[in-house]
Amino acid sequence: MTTTEWALLAEAHTALLDVVKGVKADDWNRPTPCSEWTVAQVLQHAVGDQLGFAAAITGGEGPSWNPFAPTGEPIEDPVAFTAAALDAAAAAWATVAEDAAEVPVPVPPNTLDAVTGVGACALDAAVHAWDIAVATGQPQPLSQWAAGEIITAAKQIVEPLRAWGAYAPVVEGPAGDQVAELLRYLGRDPQWAA
């Protein structure tokens, strides 16, 4: 079996898990940059997407809920809930060779090269880590390096998804800060505050 180390995915997963650990009990219903969703809903979406990537690669079961219609119901143990999904996604990606030309993924076009695919998976974890962090008053968790790597993948997958409403239009702003550029490309205002 191939075991591939994906530094970008590891950083994105750490960002999401660390932010979830910092959410206080009364923060789960707070608004987020995903204007239709609360913190709990963003987490359910992010976890569901990680399970979706794992299932696409392994052929196993995906989430038992629709990640695009999260309920926001209380999660008994949010850290364990998140860690299990991140572990599943990381284990699935560890079986994918870095030079794989076609990896099944749960986003259009449903196959991507390994580097772009892992970037898409990292994008989902990292950006929703940012959403949860800013919604709950935590420091933004993304490194300049990770944001720069993720934007490369984003530019290959986001436009078709934007047409379906998965991402808001690009927010204009100055170049130079990789995190801010990534957030603006994904339709987020880097200065958003609850």
Describe this structure in words.
The chain is mainly alpha-helical. It has one domain: dinb family like domain (Four Helix Bundle (Hemerythrin (Met), subunit A)), CATH 1.20.120. The protein is 52% helix and 2% strand. It has helices at 7-21, 39-58, 78-93, 114-135, 144-163, 178-185; strands at residues 103-104, 111-112. Strand 1 and strand 2 form a beta hairpin. It starts with 6 loop residues before the first helix and ends in a 9-residue tail after the last helix. The relative contact order is 0.17.
In terms of topology, how is this protein built?
Layout: H1 7-21, H2 39-58, H3 78-93, E1 103-104, E2 111-112, H4 114-135, H5 144-163, H6 178-185
Antiparallel strand pairs: 1-2
Helix pairs in contact: 1-3, 1-4, 2-3, 2-4, 4-5, 5-6
Quick take:
The protein is mostly helical and 194 residues long. It is 52% helix and 2% strand. Helix 4 crosses helix 5 (144-163).
- Name the CATH superfamily classification: dinb family like domain
Q: State mean pLDDT (0 to 100 scale).
A: 94
N/C terminus separation: 45 Å
Question: Structural class, from helix and strand content?
Answer: mainly alpha
Order of helices and strands: HHHEEHHH
Strand order, largest beta sheet: 1-2
CATH topology: Four Helix Bundle (Hemerythrin (Met), subunit A)
Residue fraction in strands: under 5%
Shape summary: globular
Radius of gyration: 15 Å
Number of domains: 1
Largest β-sheet summary: 2 strands, antiparallel
Instruction: Determine and state the CATH class.
Output: Mainly Alpha
Residue share in helices?
40-55%
The CATH architecture:
Up-down Bundle
Number of helices: 6
Number of E-type strands: 2
